[in-house]
Design a protein that fits this description.
Number of strands: 12
CATH superfamily of one domain: Response regulator
CATH topology of one domain: Rossmann fold
Number of helices: 13
Order of helices and strands: HHHHEHEHEHEEHEHEHEHEHEHEE
Distance between the termini: 45 Å
Largest sheet: 6 strands, parallel
Structural class: alpha/beta
Oligomer: single chain
CATH architecture of one domain: 3-Layer(aba) Sandwich
């Protein structure tokens, strides 16, 4: 997925009015005050470069509107376009079915799909995403679950790179979303029906994020439902943990030590809920007799354990993203579009 360049595409314009055919990677490196190897790393392996250095290189690349030579790549592709998709695939299993939907949505086209993994948590900046528009190796881009800055959007537009977002928002780009507020409202309505008032919310450790997270939106919807039902005495106690089964088990251990048990535990996603389930049942707790438990996503794991959850139409998000991007590649130049999909409440044995 990576290649390095030592020149620029002929004929591109330069901020000073000069042609970028004369701009080389050496000039970019000189302006940024770094080595050409560092410039190459920023374009191809940005996670290896310190944030401050990355910023200097990206500013220099933007100044020259520099694009690495891609002549050899284009010849090797023999006219077949390449779409890039970037998401935190290894951090969140929920992006795998989204990817499968994208594969299915592109199946009838002659497009190749290049997959880029981002290890940053949802809501945090991605060095790889910042650099991808500059590589010259893609004809379209789909970004999933990652905040997209104004600078990145400007780069994609200046370089003519159609871009579609999934599970994240920028007003200038097409996006496919699942309504997290509605999902939280479904949970809140279920809690009201059960008469639950003391809620524990298990979610990831706090990170520096650039946008409102899905968990925050879900809790907003949950709170809205509680308020609408005049459940003014309801409380939500947050438990930040690691994003794993072990994190869910840690939350269960903390809850077991509370003086007053919650009526229900809501987990940000099914993996955390499964960890909570394991940590409570192994200690002899009965669900839902001792406490309720609700996950989120509607995965096979929740189904196997009988955990009440909210199902997201992951596969369809990938299909919809493919449709939006293909229309851009076919010449659609209209305003940004939003596809908003609805989640569904899935009753289980835990709440």
């Amino acid at each position: 997925m990576t290649s390095s360049g030592s020149g620029a595409e002929p004929g591109a314009s330069h901020p000073s009015g000069a042609s970028t055919s004369k701009v080389t990677i050496y000039e970019v490196a000189r302006r940024a005050g770094v080595s050409i190897a560092t410039v190459s790393h920023v374009l191809n392996r940005p996670e290896r470069v310190a944030a401050a250095t990355r910023t200097k290189v990206l500013e220099a690349v933007d100044h020259f509107d520099f694009v690495p030579k891609a002549v050899a790549v284009s010849r090797a592709r023999q006219g077949v376009g390449r779409i890039g998709v970037i998401a935190p695939f290894t951090a969140y299993g929920s992006y795998h079915p989204r990817l499968l939907g994208l594969f299915d949505g592109l199946a009838a086209s002659a497009l190749e799909l290049a997959v880029f993994d981002c290890r940053a948590p949802v809501g945090a900046a991605s060095p790889t995403l910042e650099s991808l528009p500059m590589t010259g190796r893609l004809d379209g881009l789909i970004a999933m679950g990652l905040p997209v800055s104004d600078e990145v959007v400007e780069r994609t537009m200046r370089r003519g790179l159609p871009t579609v977002l999934v599970d994240t928002i920028h007003p200038a780009l097409d996006r496919v979303l699942v309504d997290d507020v509605a999902g939280g409202r479904l949970i809140g309505e279920h809690l009201v029906a059960r008469g639950d008032r003391r809620i524990a919310f298990v979610h990831e450790l706090p990170e520096v994020v650039l946008t409102q997270t899905a968990g925050e939106l879900r809790m907003q919807g949950c709170g809205d439902a509680l308020v609408a039902a005049s459940a003014a005495d309801a409380t939500i106690r947050h438990i930040p943990v690691a994003n794993s089964l072990a994190g869910g088990r840690a939350a269960a251990a903390e809850i077991r030590g509370w003086d007053e048990r919650p009526d229900c535990i809501v987990a940000h996603h099914d993996t955390l809920a499964a960890g909570v389930w394991q940590g409570l049942t192994s200690a002899g707790w009965q669900l839902p007799a001792d406490v309720g438990l609700i996950g989120y996503d509607g995965t096979d794991l929740a189904d196997a354990l009988g955990i009440t959850t909210v199902r997201q139409p992951f596969h369809r998000t990938g299909m919809e993203a493919a449709d939006l991007l293909l229309s851009r590649l076919d010449g659609y130049a209209g305003p940004p579009r939003t596809v908003l999909l609805q989640p569904a409440f899935v009753p289980g044995a835990t709440s």
